[in-house]
């Protein structure tokens, strides 16, 4: 938030110093300001990029970052975008993303992104300014109870009361954010704590002792898991974002484990890319908009090996009909994910990466032959033959959104491409039709489902990997939620691409209204859309409009070839639905494959589900 | 459509936590956020250096929810240890109550006599009132309060229980 003149009046450090003993400490040893101590602590953690927005309560930190030789500050246009950019940076690089915002509205604007990072287990450090300690609780200008507001949407949070705590708090915050199940950690720093000084060689408390997450699994449990896997006639791997979070080696090992066991593999939205979409055992994504073969395999399996996924309601469908015949092995680093939704027959609390290594080790040491699972694969072949991702051809020159995603994939698959998305139909089409062969290339808001995620996340990912081709596959409604970030992309010369599947509807809302409310499209039509090409050009972007299927490839090629940010307004079929779909409250076997199966209404039990 | 409810069971949880600001809010807020119940909650610092507090929470829910409550408590950073006393088996539960009774004549005498039966202590008295102090299991205190209602109950204050496993181990 912009600085207000009142802030200047309140922020006089001298006014508060006498009330607080540590502000008047001796100066025998070298002392540094809280802001400088913070910057040193960030450097010690290897921070290279900070996404932020200045304001009254963080001015001392901004001054400490002024012309900083090692830490690059990226000025966003809205604090929510700072958090999503940090998420994009974190998800694509594996490092923690760092956000710096001011007190009050700066912090509250960041709340959506903090919650998003919590739901999708993204390592993130959010530093918020706070009013000086003497003003806390007085409803001061730009005061908000940031630790109170973020307590339940962060993995942990701190209110720093003295500059000599900063070194330890920052170290512990990074440890908590990145270890175990990653998540966002908020550090709220009152302005006088940023200004006050402390000895830089302050004695350190024993930090990081209190948070020691699980690492390897017990070998006895792993052995039991291997025995179950070797005995299974119809096993399936169900993998999630935990594999991505465990680091690239986990994806390498997963491929080996799948090859050893010959079991089919499906993944959640968050786990796409851990096993290649071009791999022989790949079933596609599972769940509400997953493939027929993935959902049927889950339903008919006799063993589900869940690796770093959490049985989200979007995955399980109706719980009492979920995988009726399957034993379940559940590997998760977060004990609370196990038995939360679905009871595990064999719970394994461990980091999924090392656990996969252990599974391989035991499987090999027992010299278990890779099973053929011929009967199981024959059944899967039958389900695959349904060709559930097929879609009707567009009429005339109409562009089907699925085709646009497929062409985007075909034309970019030979290079390092990172895809971000917004939330809605386009997101599901991207997940279904874009093939991800590597981890950390697919950045999407899964748990929270935050519209407006894609553009800032793309900017963050591009800053983390300047050579990658970064494309935000977007919808015309979602993109408007953080469209101001077109300015950020231009300022920092990040050559990100925005590819909007423009159907002039909040498509997923419209689709649900078609299914549940007899096509009464209450407020889901995107009225008064801007001229996206003109808008992009106003922000110094290149704008391209594609309206005819004959121009699709040329438009995509022009987007790829332009060395700078490009906004593509791709006009697609307006009423296309995202299928297959398991309606809310339905079982895996009750998938809708065609719009023709839709009755247009549902009972109250189904209507009450999200 | 009607909303269904599951059968709940009562559990006593003893939680060891870092004694730092916000810990209680973190725990109480987690219960609210996830729709769990708190029947009673006690907290006090228990270590010599004031670094550690012990919280006793009485909660109720179906078994799978109780299991989740423990797992969710465990993942809070300041939480060191969660012990389910109900699951551990034999344990002691004690609660303290202050019970104010007002009345004259027979009612006053009856209150005094009942207090003796329950081994309640008189900690304040006027010619028209008593405050009794009583410790015991929640059942015993419930029983005492029910009787006091008949002889002029004015006010009740209860601490909620603290609990501990029987035997040598912690």
How is the topology of this model organized?
The complex is a heterodimer of chains A (610) and B (170).
Chain A lengths: L4 H6 L2 H4 L14 E3 H11 L4 E4 L6 H7 L6 E4 L3 H15 L3 E5 L3 H15 L4 E7 L15 H5 L5 E4 L6 H13 L5 E7 H5 L1 E3 L19 H13 L3 E5 L1 H5 L2 H14 L3 E3 L14 E4 L6 H9 L2 E5 L5 H4 L10 E6 L13 E4 L2 H14 L8 H11 L16 H12 L4 E5 L3 H9 L8 E2 L10 H11 L4 E7 L10 H6 L5 E6 L4 H10 L15 H7 L3 E5 L5 H10 L4 E6 L32 H4 L3
Parallel strand pairs in A: 2-3, 2-4, 4-5, 5-7, 6-7, 9-10, 9-12, 10-11, 12-13, 13-14, 15-16, 15-17, 17-18, 18-20, 19-20
Antiparallel strand pairs in A: 1-8
Chain B lengths: L8 E10 L4 H11 L6 E6 L6 E10 L1 H12 L4 E6 H4 L2 E12 L3 H12 L3 E6 L2 E8 L1 H13 L2 E6 L3 E4 L5
Antiparallel strand pairs in B: 1-3, 1-4, 2-3, 5-7, 5-8, 5-9, 6-7
Helix pairs in contact in B: 4-5
Task: Jot down its keywords.
heterodimer; A: 610 residues; alpha/beta; 6-stranded parallel β-sheet; globular; disordered N terminus; B: 170 residues; alpha+beta; 4-stranded antiparallel β-sheet; 5 helices
CA distance, first residue to last residue of chain B:
48 Å
Beta strands of chain A, count: 20
Our estimate of the beta-strand percent of chain A is: 15-25%
Main sheet attributes: strand count, strand direction, barrel closure of chain B: 5 strands, antiparallel
Number of strands of chain B: 9
The separation of the N and C termini of chain A measures 34 Å
> What is the assembly state of the chains in this entry?
heterodimer
Structural class of chain B: alpha+beta
> How helical, in percent, are the residues of chain A?
25-40%
Give, in spatial order, the strands making up the sheet with the most strands of chain A.
Answer: 3-2-4-5-7-6
**Individual helix count of chain B:** 5
Question: How much of the polypeptide of chain B forms β-strand, as a percent range?
Answer: 35-45%
Give the ordered list of helices and strands of chain B: EHEEHEHEHEEHEE
Described by the principal axes of the CA atoms, the overall outline of chain B is: globular
Class from helix and strand fractions of chain A:
alpha/beta
Q: State the helical fraction of chain B.
A: 25-40%
The parts of chain A where pLDDT drops under 50 for at least 5 residues are 1-27
**What composes the largest sheet of chain A?**
6 strands, parallel
Return the average pLDDT of chain A rounded to an integer: 93
Sequence stretches where pLDDT stays below 50 over 5 or more residues of chain B? none
